[in-house]
Amino acid sequence: MHEGLNIRSEIGRLRKVMLYRPGNELLNLSPDTLGPLLFDDIPFLEEAQREHDCFARMLADEGVEVLYLDELVAEALDAVPGARAEFCERWLDEAGLPGRAARGAVRELLDSIDDTRALVDKCIEGVRADELDLSPTRAASLADLMLTDRNAGSPLVIDPIPNIYFTRDTFSVIGSGVSLNSMLSRTRRREGVFGEFLLRYHPEYGGTPLWYTSDRPHNIEGGDILVLGPDVIGVGISERTSPAAIDELAARLLWGEPESGVARVFAFSIPHKRSFMHLDTVFTQVDVDTFTVHPGILGTLVVFELTRGAREGEVGIRRLDGSLDEILARALGLDAVRLIKCGGDDPIASVREQWNDGSNTLAVAPGRVLVYQRNAVTNDILSREGIELLEIPSAELSRGRGGPHCMSMAFWRDAV
């Protein structure tokens, strides 16, 4: 087992988690860029930071060691000679910046930043044209000239990466290894560069076994990956995760070296729509035998089980019959499981609170979970069902379309 990572459930006592505190990248959002950058509104940064700080304090108060993505990446880049320069080139490649002169000007800006964490934060924040020496005399191409034309060009030379505070998505810890995910949208693919260098060069996490890599052609995102038990995971076939990626991940987990410990992969096909973007937006585990679920998926899910086939490297697939609760009970080896409906039986509350991540919870221990404060109907139901709730203020964080589970990448959980 790699000493830094151990995730074999969604509910074991949480000991270590990675977050990212929202920063100046949110200030580079504008109404014109919301669509491409996957936001529906522009959060108020100061309040989003206050809410996120409260989230981090609540985790720390539960005895969880809180790590931050940008700090870890900076430590990785400082640990190995040449890693920082390699990171900058890789990040520029992924940014897809047109124009040789523009690329050179951005590289000059990055090289002028002495502190490595400030460099990492700058790469997340995005680059504005007015930060660069982009005089027309330096232009080497039409693309360069367009960037220097204040009337024709965008104020942004490289877009921000505002979704990065949803640390769950870019890479996912499964057992003592990681799925380094291949993100669907171009703007989020740049997030993979941070995970790539962290897992390559960090003194503690470098050399972690990789169950999937971000250079694979088939997209998969961490919000679709749930570690249901020591030998079983669930993966959503969703708007963001393709069946082909699940085939590859399952083959690696079931047959690859080193051993992952995974014997079964359950693939849950959910509707491919914005409000259901990931599996963890429609159900998450809150206790050993209890899940919160969006009622809109009940009766519509199609579930497949993937296991080792008869021959080396072969994966057997079968479609499962039965209701979601029956399938989950069999998967976990339980007599039965409870499904607690987001919004209860109120059809308006259920869709409203699912939109605001009422089904997206983060367990710090069995039966003790972090939730968004704003989902009052669902929270009341969970509390009455005996689930202990830690409520996070969420007026601004929720505008990014992700909840407590999305905002956290668990690194270590105790056995259940």
UniProtKB/TrEMBL annotation:
Catalysed reactions listed for this entry: L-arginine + H2O = L-citrulline + NH4(+)
Subcellular localization, as worded in the UniProt entry: Cytoplasm
GO MF term set: arginine deiminase activity
Catalytic residues identified in the record: 406 (amidino-cysteine intermediate)
InterPro entries: Arg_deiminase
Pathway given in the UniProt record: Amino-acid degradation; L-arginine degradation via ADI pathway; carbamoyl phosphate from L-arginine: step 1/2
Signal peptide extent: none
Record's keyword terms, sorted: Arginine metabolism, Cytoplasm, Hydrolase
Primary localization: cytoplasm
E.C. number(s) listed in UniProt: 3.5.3.6
Family per record: Belongs to the arginine deiminase family.
PANTHER family referenced in this protein's UniProt entry, alphabetically: ARGININE DEIMINASE (PTHR47271:SF2)
Listed name of the protein: Arginine deiminase
Organism: Thermophilibacter gallinarum
